[in-house]
Amino acid sequence: MQSPPESRSYFYKPNKKNVNYELIKSDMEECGFENIGFVNMPDNKYVESQICMLEKGYKNRAFKKGVCSDLYFGRYCSTKQILD
Questions:
Q1: DSSP string for 11-69
Q2: pTM listed for this prediction
């Protein structure tokens, strides 16, 4: 059985071919992600961290339209964040 990919592998910056994983890791830590390898944190904190990464210019492969567009996680977003 294959282990799941590290959380940082989901983040990328559009129009940039190679973003250093160390930079992604550093940005994730700055945004409040507690464990870069496997994220296990309260949902509201997870959403805050995802939004922080979006504000840094990242996209997430798991949330094509952003975490606030997700049916489950969207409940933790403000109305403004959902509309953006």
A1: EE-TT-S---HHHHHHHHHHTT-S-SSS----HHHHHHHHHHHHHTT-EETTBTT-GGG
A2: 0.79
